[in-house]
Write a structure and sequence with these properties.
This protein has one domain (4-266): Rossmann fold, CATH 3.40.50. 49% of the residues lie in helices and 13% in strands. It contains 11 helices and 8 strands. Strands 3-2-1-4-5-6-7-8 form an 8-stranded mixed β-sheet, with helices on both faces. Helix 1 links the parallel strand 1 (4-7) and strand 2 (28-33). The radius of gyration is 17 Å and the shape is globular.
Length: 267
């Protein structure tokens, strides 16, 4: 059955590879990127390689929540029902680690933006018969500092990234509880995959980017919903498994969500 799929951060890396794999099977695929020219070129490339004309895209810089909100409106206006949302957009290093609003860019792009975006388009996700949301986490997970969340302190690239990735995982578990009709899964696509972000951060890689793209595809289209809802898939182990202990601490999750909503809703 043909699905309608949206993948954020899909003009390169595992997002682009997953989009191509889905497009080749005839699914309707929407890409997202922050550069309009690059997005246009990737759309044309994927149409050519897949033979599928049902590929389109949206432009937004996810470090700017105003642009995220604008994109959500555009998505809702263009798509009537969304079967799969893959929150893949992410950042590790940046020449400008603090956003114009005073927050760490990892917290904004990897955590605030997908929350704002997902909540804004929940109505079209709920219209799908078997909706799925896949949130990209990481093997790097570190307890979230509310001071970092609120922009009161700065941290190293690695620590800020690890906290943002635990935060999105904690929110994934929370969202799965709130939306019983939507399958929500958090995913570590694999450590040190061969992507631009990894090479810029570490100068080396362990595995092909296809490893991450393949598990995104499987979770989006193959694995039974009952098997994945409200869980964490660790692709380093190749199975569902335990996440950081904080993700199972109801008090910490609620505190994180309350603080997050105050910030995101204020924007």
């Amino acid at each position: 059955m043909k699905k309608t799929i949206l993948i954020t951060g899909s003009t390169d890396g595992i997002g682009k590879l997953a989009a191509l794999k889905m497009a080749k099977e005839g699914h309707q695929v929407y890409l997202h990127g922050r550069n309009a020219d690059k997005l246009e070129k990737v759309i044309a490339e994927l149409k050519h390689k897949s033979g599928n004309e049902d590929i389109d895209g949206f432009v937004a810089d996810f470090s700017d929540l105003g642009q995220v909100h604008k994109m959500a409106k555009e998505v809702s206006a263009k798509i009537s029902a969304l079967d799969v949302l893959i929150n893949n957009a992410g950042v590790f290093k940046s020449q400008h680690p603090i956003t114009q609003d005073g927050y760490d860019i990892r917290i904004v792009v990897n955590y605030f933006a997908p929350i704002l975006f997902t909540n804004a388009i929940l109505d079209i996700i709920q219209k799908s018969k078997e909706p799925r949301i896949i949130n990209l986490s990481s093997a790097a997970q570190s307890s979230v500092s509310l001071d970092l969340l609120n922009g009161n302190i700065t941290m190293s690239d690695q620590e800020a990234y690890a906290q943002s990735k635990l935060a999105i995982l904690m929110w994934s578990f929370y969202l799965a509880q709130q939306e019983s009709n939507i399958a929500v899964v958090a995913l570590n696509p694999g450590s040190l995959l061969n992507t631009n972000m990894v090479r810029e951060a570490y100068g080396r890689f362990w595995s092909s980017a296809d490893k991450g793209a393949d598990i995104i595809y499987d979770l989006a289209l193959i694995k039974p919903i009952a098997e994945m809802d409200g869980k964490y898939f660790d692709n380093d182990r190749g199975e569902f498994g335990p996440a950081h202990a904080d993700a199972y601490n109801a008090e910490k999750v609620l505190n994180l969500i309350q603080n997050t909503e105050d910030i995101v809703n204020a924007g």
